[in-house]
């Protein structure tokens, strides 16, 4: 897997100061995409051990609230397979820090069901490490710059391990009227 960028003090993609990994490769090609340079799976540089060590060092800072995975498309199956051992290790080292992930796939249609087009042998374990999944493609006609942590109003914030199961927490993290949560 290649990556396009690593941001060690990101405040735009989840709560608090986060360490964000922008993976390369996305097959959605949403019109108006904020990051079309990441569509090519060969864009950027290989994501290797040095990059992983750098991210773990950044996550060790007290002010770092967690890790965010975005892109590109972290849930392209080839990216899931590459991300799984890295995210497993991140959670082992930093169990109290949250993991957020962004995807253009729809969780309950494409990712969670065994027959979903983004479901592969890595999916269930990868999802077990993700606290909040922001799902759905960017839809230009639903773009709203007042929305927090998302580009269009169709995108949902799913708490994957809430008591009782998956919980739609969109209004909590990114109110549809643009209020600050
Ligand atoms: S899923 Fe994200 S990276 Fe991929 S085309 Fe849509 S907005 Fe761009």
> What is the typical, i.e. mean, pLDDT?
96
In spatial order, strands of the major sheet run 3-1-2-4-5-6-7-8
Please, how many helices? 5
Number of domains: 1
Task: Give the overall silhouette.
Answer: globular
The share of residues in extended strands comes to 15-25%
Q: What structural category characterises the helix and strand content?
A: alpha/beta
Distance between the termini: 34 Å
Query: What low-confidence regions span 5 or more consecutive residues with pLDDT below 50?
Result: none
Task: Let me know the largest β-sheet.
Answer: 8 strands, mixed
Radius of gyration: 15 Å
Fraction of residues in H or I helices? 10-25%
Summarize the structure.
With 181 residues, the protein is of the alpha/beta class. Helices cover 24% and strands 25% of the residues.
How would you characterize the overall build of this protein?
- The protein is of the alpha/beta class.
- The protein has one domain.
- 24% of the residues lie in helices and 25% in strands.
- An eight-stranded mixed beta sheet has the order 3-1-2-4-5-6-7-8.
- Helix 2 (77-93) packs parallel to helix 4 (123-129).
- The longest helix has 17 residues, at 77-93.
- Bound molecules: iron/sulfur cluster.
- Residues 26, 28-30, 33-35, 38, 71-73, 104, 137-138 line the site of iron/sulfur cluster (SF4).
């Amino acid at each position: 897997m290649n990556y396009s960028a690593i941001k060690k003090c990101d405040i735009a993609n989840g709560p608090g100061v986060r360490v964000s990994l922008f993976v390369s490769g996305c097959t959605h090609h949403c019109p108006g995409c904020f990051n079309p340079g990441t569509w090519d799976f060969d864009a950027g540089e290989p994501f290797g051990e040095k990059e992983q060590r750098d991210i773990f060092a950044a996550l060790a800072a007290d002010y770092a609230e967690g890790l965010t995975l975005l892109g590109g498309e972290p849930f392209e199956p080839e990216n899931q397979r590459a991300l799984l051992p890295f995210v497993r290790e991140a959670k082992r080292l930093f169990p109290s820090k949250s993991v957020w992930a962004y995807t253009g796939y729809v969780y309950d249609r494409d990712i969670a069901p065994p027959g979903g087009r983004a479901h592969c042998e890595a999916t269930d374990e990868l999802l077990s490490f993700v606290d909040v999944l922001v799902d759905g493609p960017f839809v230009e006609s639903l773009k709203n710059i007042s929305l927090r942590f998302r580009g269009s109003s169709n995108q949902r914030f799913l708490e994957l391990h809430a008591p009782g199961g998956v919980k739609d927490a969109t209004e909590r993290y990114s109110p549809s009227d643009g209020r600050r949560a």
